[in-house]
Amino acid sequence: MFNLRTRIYSLLVAVVVVTLTGGFVMVWYTYRMEGLLNHIISENMETLYAAEGLEIALVNQKGFVSYYFLDGDPDWLRQLGEYRQIFKERLEKTKGLARTLHQKKAVSKIEEAYNRYITIKDQVISHYQRGERKAGASLHKEARNRFFGILDLCERYKRIHRKAIEQAKKKSLTQARNLRLVAGTAILVVIMLGVLLAFVLTKQILAPIRRLALEADRHEKPNETGNEVNILSRSVRGLIKDADHTQAALERSQETLLQAEKMASVGKLAAGMAHSIRNPLTSVKMRLFSLDRTLELSPAQQDDFEVISGEIRHIDTIVQNFLEFSRPPKLKTQKISPSEIVDLVLQLLHHRLESYNVTVTVERRQPLPEIQVDPEQLKEALINILENACEAMEGGGSIVIHEEKGFREPHGPVAVIQITDSGPGIQKPIQNKVFQPFFTSKEEGTGLGLSITSRIMESHGGSLELISESGKGATFVLTLPLEKI
Amino acid sequence: MENRSGFTILIADRNPNVRDLLKRELMSDGYRVIPAKDSREILKQVFSRTPLDLLILDPDLVTVGDTAIFEKLNNRIPRLPLVIHSFQSDRSQYPQDVKNVVFVEKEGNSIEHLKKVVAKMLKRNQEDSYN
User: Tell me, what's the ipTM?
Assistant: First the structure.
């Protein structure tokens, strides 16, 4: 109904509101209790104490007149006067403390009764002073009755306050109970809201995040514990990285595909063209041969004739290369050591190498193991590289062929043949281009030699790489996988 | 020069200049030569009354895209000596290791070699038929 954010926020707000309300209610209640207690102490208790004092002052007046009656010492009457004074003071105080009408009435009732009692008592005293002991004694009895009446009134007045205190206590207890009820309810509500919040957080945030993290995380252990958000962010970072890699790979493969498509169409064109050219070219070659058998030429004519023948041979080579490039022959593999093919190529090229004034050194600890290769094609690959090297080293030089076993990604165990020449090397900007078809830096090149060589290596499951620094010669690395192709 | 007037050779090549050269060279050696520019003309000759002793063929003919021509030839004249005169790179497309079929690579200077092969095959064929 509501979205997740609204639900979480409302729950949070509810929890905070309930907790704060509970807190405020508690604080308010403590103030209230304090006020209540103050009220009880300051009013009822004080009044109660005053009433008690009044009662004591009254009780203290008892007996003096009787003692006077017995021994006639006027000091008893003086003491009585003192206690009467104390009672009067206390009565005034009690009057001042009386708040309600009921209380005031009760106090004035006490005062009234007391005044009457004093009047009678004074009459009793004057009777005794005049020596009318009998009349004094009978009036003394009435005075005693009045005295008890006042004492009872005082007692009643005290009871009123005691009752008020009892009520205040009862009220505060009721309020405490109510507050406990409110606090308990608040605690229950907070617990419920908390549980609900935890449920929503777990069910709708943490669990989905964990699930997402596990789904997104393909490399890490699936039962890994830890902060869900950390795991998720790690996974997402991983995914982003993967996506970047995929994007890069896709771009690369698109580029390769584009290149391959271009090459395929160029190849088709080249094949068609070469096929068409080859036929008339052969006819020309045949006629030239025929002409050569019978012609008697002057030296200049002979030179022309040879140039024509030479250029036609060149065209023929180009056409042958085009054809081979566009229609790669099928592999005819046999089990043979690549070292054997290296030796065979060196034998084949013996005269050519001599004519270029190039010396070849083979670095070989032991012959490379036998693997499935097409000897003819591997031969062609080696010849292409060696001829390129010879042509690059004007005036002669040296070539080192280094053979070794090794381990290369992604081939695994491999046979490696490194061919290093002492020529000028290949400049960085064109290093990537040398394997592209139709790229050539030679006057009479077709631009297909290294391209064909590279493809031969690839068709064997291997690779051809170039390592070169300008001015320090060039090294071509031919890699052939040792396991089956 | 040997007298080879008895032999008739059919030359099939798509290029008229190649045909003419081969014709001239072989005629100068005393053979009777019939040129053919495509498979239709070959079959026409094969099915004509003129007996053929040898066929020099570049199978890269205008109307031949498959090996049907070889089957048709074999059906009509099974023992006709056949010289396939074509490019080395195309060799794998043609019948190999078949009796009476020899491959000669088409090159600028292949004419001398071709003439030798033709003479040899005709001679062997003649000997076979006498035996």
Answer: 0.82
